[in-house]
Structure formats: structure tokens, C-alpha cells
Write a structure and sequence with these properties.
Strands 2, 4, 5, 6, 9, 10 and 11 form a seven-stranded mixed β-sheet that branches. The chain has a four-stranded antiparallel β-sheet with strand order 1-3-8-7, with no helix packed on it. It is mostly beta strands. The protein starts with a strand and ends with a strand. About 0% of the residues lie in helices and about 55% in strands. It is globular, with a radius of gyration of 14 Å.
Length: about 120
């Protein structure tokens, strides 16, 4: 059984920072890419940032220069450092992991940015 456990969400004022973590546990083999998605009320889930096994990263235009994705392969953990947060960043943030055999989603963590 594979589990993705997310943490780090919460309420923050505009301009503030949060750091999300997502740890994969269980029988997960051959992790490839890891990513963060988000879904705001009434909107589709969108890719925020992704990172490959080799460390290459990709960001949504709306977060470039403000968010940084990183990973610790020894801990099967992916992080999302979010700086200069804006009210439009308010959403449920989900991590996703692609492995050799399957893809997995976290349960989501709420991020709320007040103006």
C-alpha cells in the first residue's frame, strides 16, 4: 500500500510564505517525476510545479520566480517552497508521484492566502 502524506498548508497573509511537504511511503518502486498540482473552487486542477529524477524542474507561469520545487530522494519526499503568496494562490494543493508501476496522488492540503 502506497501513501502520500502532505503537510505544511495553512492560512497566511498576502506576501507571506509556506512550505509544503509530501512524503511517499509503502511499497513504491522506481519513483520518476514528482509534482504539485492545485485546485481552486470552481476551477480545474492545474500543474503548479514538477521535478524529474534528474532534478529538472518545470513551473506554471503564474508561480515562476515565487515557488521552488525540490526533492529528497533518500526520503521519497517532495517540497514546495511558496514565497510572495497572493490571494489567487488559494487552493487545495495535491502532490503526485509517477513511479515505474503506477501514479499516486496525495489527499490534498489547503492553502489560504488572505488579502
Amino acid at each position: 500500500q502506497v501513501q502520500l502524506v502532505e503537510s505544511g498548508g495553512g492560512l497566511v497573509q498576502a506576501g507571506g510564505s509556506l512550505r509544503l511537504s509530501c512524503a511517499a511511503s509503502g511499497s513504491i518502486f522506481g519513483i520518476n517525476a514528482m509534482a504539485w498540482f492545485r485546485q481552486a473552487p470552481g476551477k480545474q486542477r492545474e500543474l503548479v510545479a514538477a521535478i524529474t529524477n534528474g532534478g529538472s524542474t518545470n513551473y506554471a507561469d503564474s508561480v515562476k520566480g515565487r515557488f521552488t520545487i525540490s526533492r529528497d530522494n533518500t526520503k521519497n519526499t517532495v517540497y514546495l517552497q511558496m514565497n510572495s503568496l497572493k490571494p489567487e494562490d488559494t487552493a487545495i494543493y495535491y502532490c503526485k508521484v509517477w513511479s515505474t508501476l503506477n501514479n499516486y496522488w496525495g489527499q490534498g492540503t489547503q492553502v489560504t492566502v488572505s488579502s
